[in-house]
Amino acid sequence: MATAAATSSMAATAVFMPPRLPYATSRLARCSNLPYLPPRVSTTSIKQVSESRRLSLVPIRATSSEESSTSIDTEEIFTDLKGKWDAIENKSTVILYGGGAIVAVWLSSIVVSAINSVPLLPKIMELVGLGYTGWFVYRYLLFKSSRKELATDIEVLKKKIAGTE
């Protein structure tokens, strides 16, 4: 039964598809007045060959991980993080603050997308941000004395965060 269905579908396709002419016949039966042009030679293959030759001329030097000064020692990082985690007395508070920070970022993302869906509000928020940026530049970055004041404020804030003050 499967062969009968396949034969009937092939017969149906043969009815709907036009007959194909052999390649030589279709080539002679062209209805164009333009002369036959040979296929173009691709310049990308020439570029690839020249680039591969150029790359083979570049000397390559293998270095070990001990020689490079920019390598990252993952073992040292993990031991440092483990030491800091072990030094924390109240681990539940740190986990609670971390979870709260993740929830706060998620909620702020929802609020921003809700504000963005209101038609006129995003443009107003852009104007508010642009105005605040202009005020900040005028207040803290334009003059030398205000830049020094900003630097001292940042240092005080760093000391408060680090707990050295």
Automatic annotation (TrEMBL):
Domain Cyanobacterial aminoacyl-tRNA synthetase CAAD as annotated: residue spans: 81-163
Organism lineage: Eukaryota, Viridiplantae, Streptophyta, Embryophyta, Tracheophyta
Transmembrane annotation, as ranges: 94-118, 124-142
Subcellular location, principal: membrane
Subcellular localization(s) per the UniProt record: Membrane
Coiled coil segments of this chain: none
Superkingdom: Eukaryota
GO cellular component entries: chloroplast thylakoid membrane
InterPro entries found in the cross-reference section: CAAD_dom, CURT1
Keywords associated with the record: Membrane, Transmembrane, Transmembrane helix
Topology of the protein relative to the lipid bilayer: Multi-pass membrane protein
Species of origin: Tripterygium wilfordii
Protein name: Protein CURVATURE THYLAKOID 1A chloroplastic
